[in-house]
Structures are given as structure tokens and as C-alpha cells.
Amino acid sequence: MITSKRHADILEMVREQGYVSVEKMAHRFAVTPQTIRRDINQLGNEGFLRRYHGGAGITSSTENLAYKTRQILCQAEKSRIARLLTEHIPDKSSIFINIGTTTEEVAKHLSNKKELRVITNNLHVAATLFDHDNIDVIVAGGPVRSRDGGITGDATIDFINQFKVDYGIIGISGIDNDGTLLDFDYNEVRVAKTIIANSRNVYLAADHSKFERNAMVCLCHLSEITALFTDQLPPADILEILNNSNVSLHVAE
């Protein structure tokens, strides 16, 4: 039961906005950030919301957070992950990059590479890379989603199936304890499956908030990727799967 009016108001803010930072809640309720963190911990333990670094968000297996919210959620962690991942991309590589705010961070860190060819179904990735002389950008065809610049559909899948690349760089919405990679959008997952099938190496970029997070559409299993790039050590169950599957783990401290 929600016994505090402030707790009830916090939940209302989170439900309306998808994600709310600790600072914003502290200002709204005229309390310290430490007080808000205690509130979030209690509400999170009771299953009313999900704790994130710097704030709290909704818990749902059917609906993702809004794109603008995901852009700022764990942004510093995503940037560190992206920097580490790009260190493992050699010059003169061919790359798929799919939809996601973490993969968009990866694109920002690729500018110092030479003679890359990048194929993407993410307009934000294309906009980040198109004016770099050392990177050729190919944009997949298909309908463009207004909410996040993602391109999905049968035409997108047909286009991607024409290529076989060195590296597929993918993001994900959740990683279950059994190693299943989960997302919210069936059409987006269909394209990501095609990217995985046509990549010699698959690099998964996922911050710590994705561990044990629920979503309803299955992409693949952790054992099917080459390497996981993240910002914290995964939970024990996921670590065991990585070890048993010989999947490389890279942690951006």
C-alpha cells in the first residue's frame, strides 16, 4: 500500500512522464535528494516503479520509455560504453548499427576511425556520421518512425539481407536472467534479428539498467552474441551465461 502522499505523488509524476530525475523530484517536493532516493528505493522494492541511476521510471513489459527520456537516461554510462566499444572496431570495417540511444552514442565515437562503411536503420546514426569523409553511410529503406527516427519493415529487412558485415552493433531494452535479450517492438526486433544473422561479430551495448529488465518480445539469447559492452558487472546468473557461452564481457568503469 502507498502510505505517503509524497510517494503517491512521485508515482503520479513517473506515470505521467515515464522517467523523473532525483533532482526534479527533490525540487518539486522541497526535500533533499537523499530523501527522494530513500522514497525511490522503498517504492522500487515494493514493485511500484523501477530505480534508475539518477531517477526512477515506469515498470512495464509492454511499453518502453519515451525516446527523449531514454536519451538522457544513463547518458554518461552509455557514453563510456560507446567509447570502449569503438576501441574494438578496427579501421576499414563494415558495420551494422541498429535503433537505440546507446547505439547512437556509439556512432558519436566512431568519427576517429578510418575507412568505415556503416549501414544503419537509425536516422540519428546517419545524421551523426554522414559528414565524416572517412565514413561511408548507407541508410536502409522503409518507413521512418517519427518518434525516434527508426526504420523498420519488410523493405528494411530485404535491404539488410543484401549485406554481410564485419560487426553488428545492437542495443537492447532488457536482458532476462535466463539470458534472453528482450525488446518492446516486434518490427524493430525483426530487423535486429536480420542484422545479427548477417554480422560476423555481434557487439551488444547495454548499460546496467537493462539487466533483469522485462520486455515482451524476444530477440535472441546472450550466447548468440560475440561480446557484451556494459558499465557494471552483470548479475551472477548473466555472468554465468556469458562465461559458459564464451561471450566476451567488457566493462567501462
Structural description of this entry:
- It is a single chain.
- With 253 residues, this protein is an alpha/beta fold.
- The protein folds into two domains: 5-59, Winged helix-like DNA-binding domain superfamily/Winged helix DNA-binding domain (Arc Repressor Mutant, subunit A, Orthogonal Bundle), CATH 1.10.10.10; 71-251, Rossmann fold.
- The chain has helices spanning 5-17, 22-29, 33-45, 67-72, 75-86, 101-108, 123-129, 154-160, 186-197, 236-244; strands spanning 19-21, 50-52, 55-57, 94-97, 116-120, 135-139, 165-170, 174-175, 180-183, 199-205, 217-221, 227-230, 248-251.
- Strands 6-5-4-7-10-12-13 form a seven-stranded parallel sheet, with helices on both faces.
- Helix 10 links the parallel strand 12 and strand 13.
